[in-house]
UniProtKB/TrEMBL annotation:
Pfam families: Thioredoxin_4. The keyword Signal applies. The keyword RNA-binding does not apply. Belongs to the thioredoxin family. DsbA subfamily. GO terms for molecular function: oxidoreductase activity. Residues 23-215 form the Thioredoxin domain. Keywords: Disulfide bond, Oxidoreductase, Redox-active center, Signal. InterPro entries: Thioredoxin-like_fold, Thioredoxin-like_sf, Thioredoxin_domain. This is Thioredoxin domain-containing protein. The lineage of its organism: Bacteria, Bacillati, Actinomycetota, Actinomycetes, Geodermatophilales.
């Protein structure tokens, strides 16, 4: 593990431990492969969004996330550091899991999915976390705020608007959530490493699990 990763892990350890204890990173493992789990729900679908892809695709880390979730935002810098340090070695997949208690979680996911249809998933993914404090925890719709992000990104707005309105876009988001529920996801963020729920109390333990998967 690089020095940069050690430093970053130390800085965010307290946040990630809180995520683990309260919101489902600490879940029991399951006997499955890297694509399916008990009950038949896939951990990764063919259309799942890959933030980074490993050359050999042997190790895959999947995160079920909610863009309005403060714990997901707290874990976000750590995930980004992992992506940097394991670039080319680990495939990172992001899946939607909007929580019912977040009024704009579905709106945010739909906006991200609409951006994804124009090849801009990662850009909107970053934008949601970077601006969460501006729109999160509000009860009124923030759809116009998300549309503003799309405009700032230079997206085709006619296409974006049509995709947001298309019921199939929300269905795509909710399919991820349905898979998560079938896999035992109860909160966000929840991680799966090669198909098994991550059990880690600290960032060091999390990193050790990845390193072990790479040496198997």
């Amino acid at each position: 593990m690089s020095t940069n990763l050690k430093i970053s892990a130390a800085l965010v350890a307290a946040f990630v431990v809180t995520v683990a204890v309260l919101l489902g990173v600490n879940n029991s493992g399951a006997d499955d492969t890297d694509t399916t789990e008990a009950g038949g729900a896939p951990v990764v679908r063919e259309d799942s969004h890959r933030l980074s892809t490993a050359a050999d695709d042997r190790v895959t880390l999947v995160e079920f996330l909610d863009f309005e979730c403060e714990a997901c935002k707290a874990a976000y810098p750590f995930v980004e550091q992992l992506r940097d340090d394991y670039d080319g070695q680990v495939t990172f997949v992001a899946r939607y899991f909007p929580m019912p208690g977040h009024a704009n979680a579905e709106n945010a996911a739909v906006a991200v999915e609409a951006a994804a249809r124009q090849g801009r998933f990662e850009d909107m993914y970053h934008r949601m976390y970077e601006t969460q404090t501006e729109w999160g925890e509000r009860q009124d719709s923030q759809a116009e705020v998300f549309r503003g992000f799309a405009e700032e990104m230079g997206l085709d707005m006619a296409d974006f608007d049509a995709t947001v309105r298309d019921p199939a876009t929300l269905e795509r988001v909710l399919q991820d959530r349905e898979d998560g529920l079938a896999l035992g996801v109860e909160g966000t963020p929840t991680f799966f490493l090669n198909g098994e729920k991550v059990e880690a109390q600290t960032t060091d333990e999390f990193i050790e699990l990845i390193d072990a998967a790479l040496t198997d």
